[in-house]
Write a structure and sequence with these properties.
Elements lengths: L4 E4 H8 L7 E17 L14 E15 L2 E9 L6 E9 L5 E6 L41 E8 L2 E8 L20 E11 L6 E13 L10 E13 L2 E11 L9 E14 L4 E14 L6 E14 L2 E11 L9 E11 L1
Antiparallel strand pairs: 1-2, 2-3, 2-17, 3-4, 4-5, 5-6, 6-7, 7-8, 8-9, 9-10, 10-11, 11-12, 12-13, 13-14, 14-15, 15-16, 16-17
Length: 346
């Protein structure tokens, strides 16, 4: 996205804080997108659930800024939703140079093992994105989506990305507020992702581990007391082609779609091809084996599909076409999904 404008924060100081010596800048970027989504959640019975108008549009604004402090460079990011009625995600970080970067994240997904839940090369988006089964069962031990603390640094060429979630699933709390629901299981999570893209030309690899300990609410039978996740991936780029493979495992899954299972084994393979400077295409095969408990048999959810992107200056046309069998580990529950998108960046 291109920056629309930069506003010197020092120019605003007189109207904000008369005594402030803070100097920095604010950058603004925007996108507008129209999409069409065509879904059949029951292809095995031949009954489509598509109703109404499948086309819609949205506009998004992103604000970011930075400035110097006595401890290093402080940066913040804010992303607004299409109606601009509220902030959908935001974060603030402090870069302390050799001491690393620390931050507080409210939904941008910048820290921890969740940053590498699916690292396969793609022309558009993850193949599971937008389906009935998103990434909920890939890495259940991946921590929280909001209200998390993070740390990043590089040691011996390895990029380390750590996340601590003091209250998993509690959501976004405002300044001075508390976000907690005593009626559901609450928990804390500690997870880390370690990656490298400099050891071998064209090769990017990494691994991550995470653990979430749940304090089960009274009467809660859906959530287990502890989940552990691990993942490892590698991608290799040669010329216009990039290939990749990733394997993940979660024990004691707590997803609401996964209450009858004890664990998940995930394998993802992908290949992407840059046809030219404007056109790229990719193919992904994502298998998620639901390891059922003693009274049930294992079921493999299999998702395959293609992504395509064609760039025309500031506009990009994108397409994804995915087919999912045994969605959520339920035999015979299938889904076909096609999405087209036209994105304008400003």
């Amino acid at each position: 996205m291109n920056k629309l404008t930069k506003i010197g924060a020092s120019a605003l100081a007189g109207s904000l804080v008369a005594s402030s010596a803070y100097a920095g800048e604010v950058s603004v970027s925007a996108t507008w997108e129209v999409t069409g989504e065509f879904v059949d959640n029951a292809k095995s019975s031949g009954v489509a659930n598509e109703t109404g108008n499948p086309f819609g549009s949205k506009a998004n604004l992103s604000f970011s800024g930075s400035g110097e402090t006595d401890f290093g460079t402080a940066s913040w990011f804010m992303f607004t939703n299409d109606a601009q009625g509220g902030v959908s995600s935001h974060s603030i970080t402090l870069d302390m140079g050799d001491m690393g970067l620390v931050g507080f994240d409210q939904g941008t997904g910048a820290f921890g093992i969740g940053t590498i839940d699916d690292m396969m090369p793609t022309a558009y988006e993850e193949i599971w994105n937008g389906t009935a089964q998103t990434n909920g069962d890939i890495l259940d031990g991946s921590g929280g989506a909001a209200g998390v603390f993070g740390y990043k640094n590089t040691f011996a060429g390895m990029d380390v990305n750590l996340e601590y979630a003091p209250s998993v699933g509690s959501g976004d709390a405002g300044d001075g507020g508390v976000s907690h629901d005593a009626s559901i299981a609450d928990g804390t999570s500690l997870n880390v992702a370690i990656t490298n893209s400099s050891m071998v030309e064209g090769l990017t690899f990494g691994f991550g581990v995470g653990e979430t300990d749940y304090d089960r609410a009274s009467g809660d039978v859906a959530n287990l007391g502890e989940t552990k996740s691990s993942t490892a991936f590698a991608t290799y780029a040669f010329g216009p082609v990039t290939v990749g493979y990733q394997s993940s495992y979660t024990s004691g899954s707590v997803s609401s779609t996964n209450t009858t299972t004890g664990a998940n084994e995930v394998a993802i393979m992908g290949i992407a091809f840059n046809v030219n400077d404007s056109l790229s295409i990719s193919y992904t095969d994502y298998e998620n084996k639901y390891l059922k408990r003693a009274s049930q048999g294992d079921v493999t959810q299999d998702t395959t599909g293609i992504n395509l992107a064609y760039t025309m200056g500031g506009a990009t046309f994108r397409l994804t076409d995915a087919s999912m069998d045994n969605a959520g580990g339920v035999t015979g529950t299938n889904e076909d999904r096609t999405e087209v998108s036209l994105l304008m960046a400003f």
